[in-house]
Amino acid sequence: MSELSHRQRFLTAIQHKEPDRIPLDLMGQATMLLDQTYLRLRDFLGLSPIPPVRSGSTANYYDERILNYLDIDFRRVMLPSRPQAKPKDQADGSFMDVWGIGFKKVGIYVNPIYHPLANAASVKDVQTYPWPKAITLYDVEGLREHARQLFDTTDYAIVARNPLTYGLFDRSCLLMGTAKFMMAMAKDPPIAHAILDCILSVYKDVWSLFLEAVGDFVHMVEYGDDLGGQHNLLISPDMYRIFLKPREVELFSLMRTKAPNAAIFRHCDGSIRKIIPDFIEIGVDVLNPVQTSAKDMDGKVLKESFGSQITFHGAIEKLDSDPDTLIAEVKEKIDIFAPGGGYIFSSCNHMIDVPPENILLMFETARQYGRYPRI
User: Fold this and answer.
1) 265 confidence band (pLDDT: 50, 70, 90)
2) b/e per residue, 162-175, with b = 16+ CB within 10 A?
3) 28 near 78, Cβ under 8 Å?
4) How far is CA 96 from CA 57, 126, 310, in A?
5) H helix or E strand, kind and range, residue 41
6) Among 308, 204, 198, 311, which residue's Cα sits nearest to residue 248?
């Protein structure tokens, strides 16, 4: 097969056809390099410093020089934050975001330490909370022109990078505390529904603002919400279908209206086999991170069960292993997921503490081994 453009390669793969090679992805939703990993890779490649693209998290850099070096098929359009949306530092070394959630960095991780709706006792308490406004958080000036330029002058698949990081469930748990929100779902559903409705309203406004600017030019839109643990879902399938699925339908419908030619990318960690059919039903096109080490997430079974209906994204977990083990896993996952298209190669979640040599080896192996036709 002749060499395809990066964009053609992605569009072919998500149509469940075989391109010239599997598409490669990095520096998107759940495929970032944590700062220490990024800085080591930058220095290993001899690249000069650049400013971070965001603050208040542990994965702050987006570097197109590295994407070029690795021949990554995607480029992200990001929704810039306004200055007033910057997290506010607190006297104890923590910081508070615009949602009123308090965080503190411990080692390489950022942990929530304050949940502003922890004591919400009524729907009115939720509805009168000072919810953030999209127009005061984000600035779209010049963004349409930037997206158009990427669309017209490059051959990459253009992605609307998730500006909100957390999904509806994740954000609810941060606002109320995970245990309390789960108890509200079980014991006080009106409060749980009220929190989700208020978050959804903000999210719809944010995505409307973003996609009205760039939706004509993007090929994929990212969303993420973690519903799985290592051994099971964090909530039951019924809870997902009552509280989250209808709201995801509403949000994804808005995305499709504003970005009619874009695939819907959904990040969801862990053991989520039981609700993959639900994701397919509501129009998820690309599923990340495909955590095959989790219970009931065997790659071969997933490919056989859903490979014609959804594109798998990620699946590489042994990032800090020895070279032979890493190469073996890359080849194994390509053998499982690549046949018939429907696979985008990337790490399974962010690269936390990965040697530069392993990152280069991982993508070089995928570029060479992930070619079609498969033998």
Assistant:
1) very high
2) bbbebbbbbbbbbb
3) no
4) 12, 19, 37
5) helix 35-44
6) 204
Q: How far is Cα of residue 82 from the mean position of the Cα atoms in its chain?
A: 22
What order of strands is seen across the sheet that includes strand 102-106? 88-89, 95-96, 102-106, 109-114
> What sign does the CA torsion over 263, 269, 273, 278 have?
negative
Rounded Cα–Cα distance for residues 287 and 291 (Å): 10
Number of neighbouring beta carbons within 10 Å of residue 261: 12
CB 178 within 8 A of CB 115: no
Mean model confidence pLDDT for the chain:
96
**Of how many residues is the chain composed?**
375
pLDDT at residue number 56: 62
Residue 101 has a CB neighbour count (10 Å cut-off) of 19
Q: For 308-326, what is each residue's pLDDT tens digit? A: 999 999 999 999 999 999 9
Question: Rounded to the nearest 10 degrees, what angle do helices 189-214 and 168-176 cross at?
Answer: 130
* Residues ≥6 apart with Cβ < 8 Å to 160: 76, 77, 79, 210, 211, 214, 215, 218, 220, 221, 222, 259, 262
Whole-angstrom CA distances from 270 to 169, 194, 225, 230, 307 are 15, 27, 11, 5, 18
Alpha helix (H) residue ranges in 188-244: 189-214, 237-239
